[in-house]
Amino acid sequence: MNTTPPTACRAWRNLEAHAESWRGASIAELLDSDPGRMLRFVAEAPGLRLDYSRQRLGGLTLKMLEQLAAERGFEEWRRGLFTGARLNSTEDRAAWHTALRAGSEAPDEVKQTLNRMFGLSEQIRSEKKFKRIVNLGTGGSDLGPRLLADALGDGALETRFAANVDPADLARALEGADPARTLFVVVSKTFTTQETMANAARAKQFLQGRNHFIAVTANTEAAKRFGAMEVLPMWDWVGGRFSVWSAAGFSALCALGAGRFAAFLGGGRDMDRHFREAPLESNIPALLALIGVWNINFLGAATHAVLPYAHALRLLPAYLQQLEMESNGKRVDREGRELSYATAPVVWGAEGTVSQHSFHQLLHQGTQVVPVDFIDAGADPVLSANLQAQGDALAWGTAAREASLPPHRRYPGNRPSSTIVLEKLDATGLGRLIALYEHKVFTQGVVWNINSFDQWGVELGKQLAQEILQRKE
């Protein structure tokens, strides 16, 4: 597998030269002069369509980006992702989250765990002993299941989440709860995560001696000592931010029901198949990744906005913040060399149309250009119309009418965006969307020669906080 710096690749140097002619290019002129652009600069996958015609690039740019991926050994890395190769080099582990949704081809331990999860969740939902389920986890043990439950929960169970060590977070999750009818799901791979275990200790006090705990962990003995009535496994080959497909998503499974959660897994499997089989020029995750590399490394973008036009996807930007920035926010490559090029941008966003009355001012008239992913879930024609209008305004601005407008009312335009259109916002569609972004992150890690599957940068602050607390004791 290629672990040389990407800057040593001929394709990288060619792209640097190629970018000179594109920095002053006009997206509006590209669209106006080529009526077929909106038909050609699109790609399709099962239940999903990508329109990237409003990006500042051309056909030659795409071919050069594909050549860069080839020189980076993309096909070999992709094969390793699906076969359990030890891609997480600093921890000597596989990054095999695709196995969690592989269906009949999944490892036996995954199938057995899914069967246990489905049986246990259906028992909880049908017996109606518990009215509320509270997920105690943080990071990947919180953001994924929280997104699923918020987007697709059917209301059969009250599902709450507590991730912050601040006691107010758990107190809010327990507001109005009956200890006799409250179940806690404690999600921690090590069963030592500071925030999670602090909340678990408070949960014990709330339960007043009742054993209403299910643990999701790789540390079975610690969970049993804590008193969990059920322990579901986690594996070291699944990183937290890629774990929503596993037992870490048990709270979401209880919120959705077995049928919807199975459809969610199926949607991820659909995108896995597309990513594994589609050629680069029509491979949606790879295209998103390479367009991102183009904007970041060759056109100088430092941030990236994700704007889902569906209330059900309101938590998606927060989920993607962790997925992208914890994965690819790295300063050294796989060989420990300091990087001379940018990696992950700052990822941010919010749901439309709410965000239009917030930070869209900066997107349209700010001094920095921010590439945007619009997500059209087809939830409502008014939402879709607003999404399309925002993309048009970013691309064209007010150039045709500028002479009659005062400076403060002019929109410069020429702001790049892509639009992802979901056929339907259901469990299958959400599975496809999340897997799409997982594969985008992986592809960019391959191009940048970084390990997308560790997160050492989160450790130092925790250690220092613990030392400060010990000094105060």
Short description:
This protein has 473 residues and is of the alpha/beta class. The protein has 18 helices and eleven strands.
CA-to-CA gap between the ends? 50 Å
CATH level 4 superfamily of the largest domain: Glucose-6-phosphate isomerase like protein, domain 1
Main beta sheet: 6 strands, mixed
- Percentage beta strand: 5-15%
Query: How many separate helices?
Result: 18
Shape: globular
CATH architecture of the largest domain: 3-Layer(aba) Sandwich
Widest sheet: strand ordering:
1-2-11-10-8-9
Residue share in helix: 40-55%
User: What is the H-and-E element order?
Assistant: HHHEEHHHEHEHEHEHEHHHEHEHEHEHH
CATH level-1 class of the largest domain: Alpha Beta
Quantity of strands, as a count: 11
Please state the CA-atom Rg, rounded to the nearest Å: 23 Å
Domain count: the total is: 2
Structure commentary:
With 473 residues, the protein is α/β, with parallel strands linked by helices. It has two domains: 6-92 and 263-457, Glucose-6-phosphate isomerase like protein, domain 1 (Rossmann fold); 97-256, 3-Layer(aba) Sandwich (Rossmann fold), CATH 3.40.50.10490. The chain has helices spanning 10-20, 27-33, 37-40, 59-71, 74-83, 108-127, 143-152, 167-173, 194-207, 220-226, 250-256, 258-277, 284-298, 316-328, 360-365, 381-396, 427-448, 459-472, and strands at residues 42-45, 48-51, 132-136, 158-162, 182-187, 213-217, 230-233, 303-308, 346-349, 372-376, 417-422. A six-stranded mixed sheet has the order 1-2-11-10-8-9, with helices on both faces. Strands 4-3-5-6-7 form a five-stranded parallel sheet, sandwiched between helices. Helix 7 (143-152) runs parallel beside helix 11 and helix 12 (258-277) packs parallel to helix 17. The model has no long low-confidence stretch (mean pLDDT 96).
